[in-house]
Amino acid sequence: MLTIRNVIIEDLPELISIENQCFTKEEAATEEAFIKRIQLIPDSFFVAVNDGKIIGLVNGPVIEKAFITDDLFTDIKANPVSGGHQSILGLAVNPYVQKQGVASALLTHLEKDAKTKKRKSITLTCRADLIPFYEKHGYQNRGISNSEHGGILWYNMIKKL
């Protein structure tokens, strides 16, 4: 059975494994970035667990502006108690269990949590091929992002809460 919980530091090896299977070396969060996120934003870093094994993750800090900027990938602060915009820096699911609703469950969990904390929106950047997935979940495409993370063309996606 799928459960979703907040991250703990002991999850680190599995998180790195999933991240590196889902993203290119240039795109993937580093071990150092994950450690920082686990320490500073465990309240908005969730893992999907099935049969005791982590199979997916979603994470990102709460930010003041509506769109992600590249500095967030290395420099984040603890989340405010309420308000702001919930960002998603990473949503990744083990390739062996993709297309089984795990990413959708993680998004839904993050959204419920963001609503209880009175966040204004959920914001993320994605590649063009993932736009339909996020649109299906109620996100709006706001065009090409200024992000140059990983040397990829990113699109701003946002969902008002």
UniProtKB/TrEMBL annotation:
InterPro entries: Acyl_CoA_acyltransferase, GNAT_dom, SNAT-like. It comes from the Bacteria. Keywords: Acyltransferase, Transferase. Residues 2-161 form the N-acetyltransferase domain. Pfam families: Acetyltransf_1. Gene3D superfamilies: 3.40.630.30. This is GNAT family N-acetyltransferase. It comes from Niallia oryzisoli.
